């Protein structure tokens, strides 16, 4: 058995987890409320909060797992992509901690970790290769074909904004607060998704574009507010339901097409937006229609967390893929 301490600090959540093989012993997350007043993550404030949180979070993860430091076999950490200042805190701590204990380091790609969260032992079924995963968050929107744990082919991506960013932007336009995704999801359950129509762009292949949807929503509200200053307040639930249906419908349509074209019968979702109730139900609907299998992560593994970093580190450690102390963090793509 292998016991790994995992650290995640790519954005504004400081997280540490302890995994024994594919089983999560602890998964501690410290969120940062300071960004709410700014309507988005402020990088400098995020990195400072990580510095305050990293030691208490790691200590709590070890205590809850009942694991001593000398019982660890390796330290896994998110190397990127993400905010540079935030990543530097986690990467530096992981290097120092592993060096002090004389154990190896395992670097993990944040996006791969989201996808591989499906292989955490939850007592339920796990995907079999090959399968397609829709990875959708505030910063990324991709359709991926997984042929093995780290043999991942990008079938499609967004050519501009991410789906999660578009949802948060819609919430900001309506002054719903930050993060806006959960608020839109909650209000949408009370609204009519067919109340308003917002066009989706015609993008070739499996790629996405969300900038046009954001602009359409903004101009629509501008015109309606000119007629009635109370338009948003009177139609808030319907607006949330309509914009959410537009974005989720776009995501599911492309993912379904990819699965049909490639003859893949297993679909999964991952990333922060995979917590969205409509996206989860629409994936299940499409899979039921085609008699495919749907894989939906537990809510605790949708948003950024160290357990997903730990499972990715586990598979890399088993392959002997260890990290060098000289490796720097990276903000985009993979390295």
Would you write up a description of this structure?
- With 335 residues, the chain is α/β, with parallel strands linked by helices.
- The chain folds into two domains: 3-116 and 303-318, Nucleotidyltransferase, domain 5 (2-Layer Sandwich), CATH 3.30.420.40; 128-297, Nucleotidyltransferase, domain 5 (2-Layer Sandwich).
- The chain is built from nine helices and ten strands.
- It has helices at 43-65, 84-101, 110-116, 163-173, 180-188, 211-227, 231-262, 277-290, 306-318, and strands at residues 3-8, 14-20, 23-30, 74-80, 105-109, 131-136, 141-146, 152-157, 266-270, 293-295.
- It has a five-stranded mixed beta sheet, with helices on both faces. Strands 8-7-6-9-10 form a five-stranded mixed beta sheet.
- Strand 2 and strand 3 form a beta hairpin.
- The longest helix has 32 residues, at 231-262.
